Amino acid sequence: MAKAPKEAVEVTELMVALFHEHKRAFSALAKEHALTPQQMATLWNLAPGQGLAMSALAELLMCDASNVTGIVDKLEARGLTQRGQAEDRRVKVLTLTPQGETLRAELRTRMLEPPPYILALAREEQRTLRDILRRAVAASRSDEDE
Asked: Domain limits at 54?
């Protein structure tokens, strides 16, 4: 494998630093709502009005299905999610309750507020960064398809 250009390594290092900053904010917001980061990630990944198979949720959370059961148990106890069955009765599907949809919307609104380090960039820099990130995300998705 060819050695990566110095600039690419630096970009990766900077992205990791921003990822950790974002993760801190994500965890703090979860704590503010008496959620674990995994519970908040579960709410984040559930689309209102749509079910998600527990196995698919385990993949999204990058954890074992047995861990998802404990996460979902706690969310159900708070009235934020409910389990049901898919057409294939062996598959458990998770959906948001109305209370869960409300909390999810609040969490997403808060997490998608641009942080100070983005707001410190000029509008043109924000557009440029957005365009670059769009291309990087598109490239990462095309790699998954291969």
From this structure: 31-113
